[in-house]
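Deviations from the work plan: none for this task. Representative record:
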Amino acid sequence: MRIIVDAMGGDNAPLAPVQGALQAVKEYGVEAVLVGRGEEILKAVHDQGLAELPQGLSITHANQVVDMHDNPATAFKEKKDSSLTVGLNLLKNGEGDAFVSAGSTGALLSGATLLVKRIRGIRRAAMAPVVPTGGGGSVLIDCGATAEGTPEFLLQFAFMGSYYAERVLGRPEPKVGLLNIGAEPSKGTGLQKEAYKLLHAASEEGRINFVGNVEAREAVEGAVDVIVADGYSGNIFLKTVEGTGLFMSRQMKKMFTRNWKSKLAALLVKDGIRDFKKLLDSNEVGGTALVGISKPVIKAHGSSNGYAIKNAIRQAVEFKRSGIIEDITENVEYMRLNARSAGTDGEEG
Amino acid sequence: MRIIVDAMGGDNAPLAPVQGALQAVKEYGVEAVLVGRGEEILKAVHDQGLAELPQGLSITHANQVVDMHDNPATAFKEKKDSSLTVGLNLLKNGEGDAFVSAGSTGALLSGATLLVKRIRGIRRAAMAPVVPTGGGGSVLIDCGATAEGTPEFLLQFAFMGSYYAERVLGRPEPKVGLLNIGAEPSKGTGLQKEAYKLLHAASEEGRINFVGNVEAREAVEGAVDVIVADGYSGNIFLKTVEGTGLFMSRQMKKMFTRNWKSKLAALLVKDGIRDFKKLLDSNEVGGTALVGISKPVIKAHGSSNGYAIKNAIRQAVEFKRSGIIEDITENVEYMRLNARSAGTDGEEG
């Protein structure tokens, strides 16, 4: 398998992508193509104490870099020689099996949608991170790829999230919940009420295992494997989990640095503190899959270090191997409100 | 001041309301009217070791209890002799200054809206809890009184939340933020984009201090004094903060109960652990104000103990004294999209 890595994306580029790719090649036996400014990439390789590119690693030169000043919606075409655009084109043309980038989320999403394209019949690609919950992690879909939701988007997210939980996380018959403010089908806004009906019907047909509405509090506890949300609500949920986690970590730090007794206590539980921090460390997760795109695209966190990039590459490998894209493609007719017109409006742009 | 207390509402009624009222009468020098089944209330008073009702405490008998089987929207009129309905009527008729209940949120909201009424010109009452954030707490408005939002609702929430933060929490020129998925005015769904414009205009006129969109993560850190949200999103935010807090508390407990070393550590930081738990304890907060109702109504947590009810009574006293209802009433014209028609559609039900 061959993973295309955006060597210029993220806060720590090109060092982190180079480190991550080197480690991934060694650990997973994959090939990696680093896309970006050749000389900068080579320098980073040399800085790792390597005289030349190791077996399995190659470079595809791209001179431009998409940065935060670029318009996310159009960056991929305005900067045709960027690592983002060149990398996505490699993916599109079959010169690699997956693309990993820690660069701009918006630019990656637009580029992936318009160059690599969505799976035919999928209305919107979704960002589907695995959120740390009491159940060992839950797929949250969507968390901000599309702010505005429709019942059909949520239906598609439910299917895609279910396949992801089953295929990539290995959960049999994953429990799918609709993020809502109460358990009853009458709860929420019009969007949730309509989506509830569609998800319930899909569950009755045996296509997904919809367990009903899930309140945010239960979602955090790990009550479901898949949390279905419109992009706006999903983002609020995700960022609140992250923010509260950080807030509480700081409170815990305060608790342990108060005086000599508390510092001694910190020494006594230092393994526990390490595990606690790990729970919240985005570097552990790797990245967020862009589900619904016709080929695997993984967004790594902007602040990724080499370890995080390596994990994102592992995730790309798992995603590719899982067969989730084939699953979605084969079942897309069940995710459409008006399946008959699927042939005519599959690419609404 | 005289506070009307629903003696039959909540999981621990009538004990918790009785304990809370007893403590509040003693500590704050207020009068309290306990509404509910007289004999049960008297028994709870006796169980506290008191032979008779102490000075300042009285009972108004009401035979029925609104419970979870009642339809929240109609319970107040179907059970006319319930502690909820009798209590709200006392408030309406000026026989008390505020009403505190740990009973059904939905029934309280419907009853307060239809019996006590909203302030003229206010479209929807909002639930406005003070959420524990890095800044010492922020007012979240709304968190679920009305799931579906409109830009005008959010404008009114912004004003009311700002008055609450200033008058009740004592924050001068409170920073008002719109809960959103990015900082730019173009972020979010149509609702947030439209609301942004209204809030910005109100800020330009010097009526509120709108600092722009606030992401969930920054909101948790305490970046703003007032977090403005539609009821659906606000509820997701609140429940996620609560859920993540509980999840992390459990992780911390695990950390401290691993082995003898970790148990020793727990002893060394036991004050710190107590403060940590307090951060998340809903009993500390007291309750949630129903802002926009023409008289003070406080919803205490369903699981309130006596201490929590006492805190909710304190909050009712502060709310009444703050003059926030007068503030809203005097400025309601600035919170209307079409102020000219305020006379005709003030009570849309």
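Chain B has a mean pLDDT of 93.
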